[in-house]
User: What shape does this take?
Amino acid sequence: MPKGLTAKAFFDRFVCEMTVEGRYVSCEKKNSQFTRKVKNAIEKIICDTPEYYTVDHTEFLYDEREEEDAKDINVGFNPHKWALTTLVEHENDDKDWNYEVYKLAPFHCPLRVIIGYIDEKLRNDPERGDNARLNRICENFLFMKEQECFYGGGQFLVIIGNSRTWEKANYKGYLYLEEENAFYEILQ
Assistant: This one.
């Protein structure tokens, strides 16, 4: 299995890239500008490649030695030997990012990351906040497992921030533990 970042290492580096001296940097509230800021942060963490199956950011492990060996077997096309190490999806719309979770669920990959948002006023709401949304994701993971369309290996990280004020994003990282079918907050 390819070696890459752990969920904790990705989350710590993401928060570090999004802050200056421990504070989230002010950014205009236009989605395109903030998306660019998040994209730049992700590209500093992983060696990003073009979208793969419409996944926003992907990182691959290449074995250059195998590439050279494969070139000796000229069958008329370029060899591409690679393995996924990290998949990252970022969604500004605080009502739509769970779609991204289900998009990444079937991938055989050591680290899958979703970055989404919730209105600051709802973060601790028992019916609509972080825990409620994470519990719904767990319910749907069970359904996906029953349908045999969930890859259970690797780590699954969900990063949730405040959606209304980017400079007060207050990101929290949650790691999915399959054996417990639950998410646990990653503490910094």
